[in-house]
Specification:
alpha/beta, Rossmann fold, 2 domains, 7-stranded parallel beta sheet, 12 helices, 12 strands, 14% strand, binds glyoxylic acid
Length: 330
């Protein structure tokens, strides 16, 4: 087979690019901003494989514009940016990077949990605004984690790592999940609650760890927010659209819940006109839960290995649709 041609949609770790360059002709999008849909189609047109990010939409339009593409390796654990059935229909294999980012993402969810509970960001802003005029015992009071209940929505790999960390902080941990995990319950002392509304009612903190699908879009809406305690804090490191952001704004403004810490938004990048940004009881970060030096390198290397394996007809490390290979015509 001739040397495959691949397009990488953003500058990634040099280790990963070196792996790719050893076996393929590699084109890299050099800019900080992602290629537009048109630019992506143009670049993909002559490619055999793509290494994509969560900001790239992989849909029928792109796949049709890239008739030679056989593998698309997404550098993320989430894949709501990809229409997997459309890829499968066309015999295109889709790779993802689970596992390598699990602990890093859980650490970040925990960082947000602690920051929101203890008002770390507000404290910093308070000081910088010149408001630290004295010390007084009622200043910037937060909430304890110890003794509080954390409700985890979605006990996948990342949810479980958050649960483990919460137990070390002496929190009670309850969870709801599509499948019950009796072994993990036993081992880590977790409580399973079948109904989301019951979980929300019982929790002082709620952390979201579900993938974005048609079933989980706006899983947390007005009704669910009203099930939560008025003192509760919501943490979202999953996907923005798992929460109805408008409803969340209303709930935070009206005191339906006490606070929120979000690493993801319905529209990313979040526009500065977003009403949530006017509220003091919200922390927002720019989708950086997996952004550690080591993890981003691991993700890039895994995505490169996935791409090369798929292109050379070997078993990919993580493939969402291995059945696509069977129906392959190219
Ligand atoms: C990040 O959000 C990912 O899905 O890897
Ligand atoms: C997410 O749940 C993962 O697989 O790491």
């Amino acid at each position: 087979m001739s040397t495959p041609h691949v397009f990488v949609t953003r500058m990634i770790a040099p280790e990963a690019l070196a792996l790719l360059r050893a076996q393929a002709d590699v084109d890299v999008w050099p800019h900080e901003s992602p290629p537009s849909a048109n630019e992506l189609r143009e670049r993909a047109h002559t490619c055999d494989g793509l290494l994509t990010m969560l900001t790239d939409r992989v849909d029928a339009g792109l796949l049709d514009a890239a008739p030679r593409v056989r593998v698309i390796s997404n550098m993320a654990v989430g894949y709501d940016n990809i229409q997997v059935p459309e890829a499968t229909k066309r015999g295109v294999l889709i790779g993802t990077t689970p596992g390598v980012l699990t602990k890093t993402s859980a650490e970040f969810a925990f960082a947000l949990l602690l920051a929101a509970a203890r008002r770390v960001v507000e404290g910093d802003q308070f000081l910088r605004a010149g408001k630290w005029q004295t010390w007084h015992p009622g200043m910037l009071l937060g909430r304890d984690l110890a003794g509080a209940t954390l409700g985890i929505v979605g006990l996948g790999a990342i949810g479980l790592e958050v649960a483990k960390r919460a137990r070390v902080f002496e929190m009670h941990v309850a969870y709801t999940s599509r499948t019950r995990k009796p072994e993990e319950e036993q081992r880590y002392g977790l409580t399973w609650i079948h109904d989301l509304s019951d979980l929300l009612q019982a929790s002082d903190f709620v952390s979201l760890h579900v993938a974005l699908t048609e079933q989980t879009r706006h899983l947390i809406g007005l009704k669910q927010l009203h099930h939560m305690k008025r003192t509760a804090i919501l943490v979202n490191t999953a996907r923005g659209s798992v929460v109805d952001q408008k409803a969340l704004y209303g709930a935070l403004r009206e005191g339906v819940i006490a606070g929120a810490a979000l690493d993801v938004a319905e529209q990313e990048p979040m526009p500065l006109s977003e009403p949530l940004l006017t509220l003091p009881n919200v922390i927002v970060t720019p989708h950086i839960a997996s952004a550690s030096v080591a993890t981003r390198t691991r993700m890039a290397v895994m995505a490169a290995q996935n791409l090369l394996a798929g292109l050379s007809g070997q078993t990919m490390l993580h493939c969402l649709n291995p059945q696509a290979f069977v129906g392959r015509k190219k």
